[in-house]
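Reading is simple: each integer encodes one residue's backbone shape. The lines below illustrate:
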Amino acid sequence: MKKLILYTLFLSINMIAYAQTDSNKITIKQGLSVKFYQNGKKLKPIQLLKITRDNAEAYKEMKKAKANADVSNVLAIPGGLLFGFPLGQAMAGGEPNKILLGVGAGLIIASIPLSSAYTKRAKKAVNIYNASNQHSEYRKFNINMGFAHNGVGLQITF
């Protein structure tokens, strides 16, 4: 009975140790747009930048990704407004301003490659981060259980 309890304790300690390894992992969910999650929370580009700060390679890639996202948003938001206002005028029966419509469409089209570059670089940064984090997590500690000179011993090495 004592051996069974010790064996169960040993297995539960190992399960706890392995459960901690995925807590820092960032997951990528692809839908209409790419979304990044850590511990069930959706991450914004600025949060991804802060998280990857500990990994130089991932941080460098995420910095470039965030720059692409920022420029993309600077182009897309005014583009949407400039495109949407004349569109609303046309729907209301008025004469749309075709210059605003064209400028808005141009800004939106110009933001698409930058948004795509953000997605590509952010995915790369997350993959770099997860790969390096996975290796470092497994090396952080080691749990050994066995017989010692005075009974059963548990050794945790960090």
Summary: The first helix runs from residue 2 to 19. Residues 2-152 form one domain.
